[in-house]
Design goal:
About 45% of the residues lie in helices and about 20% in strands. It has helices at about 1-25, 30-45, 50-130, 170-175, 195, 200-205, 220-235, 290-295, 320-325, 345-355, 360-365, 400-415, 435-440, 445-455, 470-480; strands spanning about 135, 145-150, 155-165, 180-190, 205-215, 235-240, 245-250, 250-255, 270-275, 280-285, 305-310, 330-335, 360, 370, 375-380, 430, 485. Helix 1 (about 1-25) packs antiparallel against helix 2 (about 30-45). It starts with a helix and ends with a strand.
Length: about 500
């Protein structure tokens, strides 16, 4: 009775314990509940002693605890693994959205400024290579001669537009003074002697790459001498036409005239725009208003920063329409002081001033040099002075053609008269003349004058062939000019 009571009491106690433990662990593991239920069924079947019952209860309790701990441990391990996986995943995700974009951003931020700096440096180097263009409107009296001079990538370039008058040596001397040994291009706007006058001398003394001329012809001896010099020098010869574009990097030359030849040498004047960076120069030779209008009609881009006035500032040129199309900030007139044509004419000077354009003239300012880096412009003059409307106007355009014809006739007559060397007191004694006086002789520049001083005395004018570069043809020119003599 007592044993049975104890047995059932043990069963009841175990059942209660299992129920309590089972309720507590039910939410943690279904397996623990199933095992506990199996244990109860075994307790009902087996009929053992109280000790065995207590042992069984103890074992069941231990099993429950062990199972619970095992399940809990497994759950903790699984949770730990999940946490580790989550941590690893989080790190990977952090590496991707945080570190990698940061690195990309840093690379981008670092690389872009570096590229910008490199581009700026490259641009600066290009500007340094470009250097400056110097345009020399040379004071050659009542004539034209304009020198374009620049250096690019360590190489020197020079272009000469018109060459001064036939009876002077000033253009040749100026080129020597600028230490120029060669010209890439020499251009004669038209075949009048005040524009191509020293071409033959320059071909004789300098290395010239190309000669450009309009293609018009005259009967003057100056023109004939130039043709002979071109032929004997084997220089490349061109006759550009409107629309032609030439490049001497970084200088661009656009030809606007002539389109065709009409037989009028002024109408056929070579007109070209020289562009260096953003700065441009327009030279028209002796082009007159009808030619200016033709260039406007052909829709050329005539705009330029610097305009050399056509026909030395004559009122035959630089019409209001043409001046408006060019819209320059600077105008240059090449004319001789007190010239018989009265250049520049009052009407042209007034037109320039009314347009607000700065006007310079070789007859007042001497040689005018304009320097530019392709963006900025500096104007340098040999002499100070202002051009006013009444300062030089004493002639009329109605008489210019007649005067030019008379000048050409005089030129031919003087060439004929000087076929024999002069021996009067006005000639230059090559054995006693100063270095400056020697340079007044045709084909004698500073270098040759110095050589003459070293080679003195000369036995005759023919003995000048001892001078470097003085060959038979050059000597013939010297003798024809009649300036050189012995004991004069």
């Amino acid at each position: 009775m007592c044993i049975r009571h104890n047995k059932w009491f043990s069963y009841l106690w175990v059942a209660c314990f299992v129920f309590v433990v089972g309720c507590g662990d039910a939410n943690e593991s279904g397996n623990s509940i199933a095992e506990t239920t199996t244990g109860n069924q075994e307790l009902e079947v087996e009929d053992t002693s109280n000790q065995e019952d207590e042992d069984l209860a103890t074992n069941e309790e231990n099993n429950v605890d062990n199972n619970t701990e095992t399940d809990t441990s497994e759950a903790i391990e699984e949770e730990s693994l999940e946490n580790e996986n989550m941590e690893e995943h989080t790190v990977e995700n952090n590496d991707e959205p945080v570190n990698e974009p940061d690195e990309t951003t840093n690379e981008t931020n670092n690389s872009e400024p570096e590229n910008e700096v490199l581009e700026e440096v490259e641009d600066l180097e290009e500007l340094e290579e470009l250097e400056e263009l110097s345009v020399h409107f040379i004071d050659v009296g009542q004539a034209d001669a304009t020198l374009f001079q620049f250096t690019h990538e360590g190489e020197e370039f020079a272009v000469l537009f018109d060459t001064g008058n036939w009876n002077r040596n000033d253009t040749v001397n100026y080129l020597h003074d600028q230490d120029i040994s060669s010209l890439d291009v020499m251009i004669g706007s038209h075949p009048h002697a005040d524009h191509i006058g020293q071409m033959d001398k320059i071909l004789d003394e300098f290395d010239v790459g190309e000669v450009w001329m309009s293609g018009d012809e005259t009967s003057s001896q100056t023109f004939e001498r130039v043709l002979d010099a071109i032929e004997s020098s084997d220089v490349a010869y061109e006759e550009p036409r409107a629309g032609d574009v030439f490049g001497i990097d970084p200088l661009t030359i656009e030809v606007f005239n002539p389109e065709t030849l009409t037989g009028d040498v002024h109408e056929g004047s070579l007109t070209a725009k020289f562009t260096f960076g953003e700065v441009s120069f327009l030279l028209t030779g002796d082009a007159e208003t009808q030619t200016e209008q033709a260039m406007i009609t052909r829709d050329h881009d005539l705009s330029a920063d610097v305009l050399q006035l056509g026909h030395h500032g004559s009122d035959t040129s630089t019409s209001s329409e043409f001046l408006s199309a060019v819209s320059p900030t600077i105008a240059i007139v090449s004319a001789g002081a007190g010239n018989q044509y009265g250049h520049p004419h009052d009407s042209v000077v007034e037109r320039i001033q009314e347009a607000g354009v700065d006007l310079y003239g070789t007859h007042v300012n001497g040689t005018i040099v304009i320097e530019t880096d392709g963006e900025n412009i500096d104007t340098l003059t040999s002499e100070d002075g202002t051009i006013s409307p009444s300062s030089t106007d004493s002639g009329s355009s109605n008489t210019e053609e007649k005067v030019e014809e008379e000048t050409e006739t005089k030129e031919n007559e003087e060439h004929e008269e000087s076929s024999e060397p002069a021996t009067d007191a006005s000639c230059i004694d090559i054995n006693s003349a100063t270095i400056d006086e020697l340079q007044e002789i045709i084909h004698i520049g500073p270098a040759r004058a110095e050589e003459m001083l070293d080679l003195r005395p000369f036995s005759s004018v023919d003995d000048m062939t001892r001078i470097n570069g003085i060959a038979a043809k050059t000597l013939e020119d010297i003798k024809s000019e009649g300036n050189a003599c012995i004991g004069g």
